[in-house]
């Protein structure tokens, strides 16, 4: 009888106590969003259809580079580009965005 009461109270508490499950965004998410925004400005007639984070490069205390690979699509054809987002990690500020077109439309 006591075991059933403890089990019932435990189950009741599970429903009464709010469980906070929030996944934290990855560290590159902010810069990925900026990479997409800037790519959309640079290539307004092309749609970003795929996105891959390729890592971060430490350059100095005031410079880091986030690397991304995007697939752009236009008129049913797609191509790959690399996007490099250079930031100042101390100020959490964008420095520049560079592009490397690695594949023509196919």
Describe the structure.
With 106 residues, the protein is of the alpha+beta class. The protein has a single domain, classed as Nuclear Transport Factor 2, Chain: A, CATH 3.10.450.390. 27% of the residues lie in helices and 44% in strands. The protein has 2 helices and 4 strands. It has helices at residues 2-16, 29-42, and strands at 47-60, 63-74, 77-88, 93-101. Strands 1-2-3-4 form a 4-stranded antiparallel β-sheet, with helices on one face. A hairpin with a 2-residue loop joins strand 1 (47-60) and strand 2. The longest helix is centred in the N-terminal third of the chain and has 15 residues, at 2-16. The radius of gyration is 23 Å and the shape is globular. The N and C termini lie far apart (71 Å). The relative contact order is 0.16.
List the helices and strands and how they pair.
Elements: H1 2-16, H2 29-42, E1 47-60, E2 63-74, E3 77-88, E4 93-101
Antiparallel strand pairs: 1-2, 2-3, 3-4
Number of helices: 2
**Overall morphology:** globular
Overall number of strands: 4
- Work out the count of structural domains: 1
- CATH homologous superfamily assignment: Protein of unknown function DUF3889
**Segments where pLDDT lies below 50 for 5+ residues?**
none
Distance between the termini: 71 Å
CATH level-two architecture: Roll
Helix content: 25-40%
* CATH class division: Alpha Beta
Radius of gyration from CA coordinates: 23 Å
String of helices and strands = HHEEEE
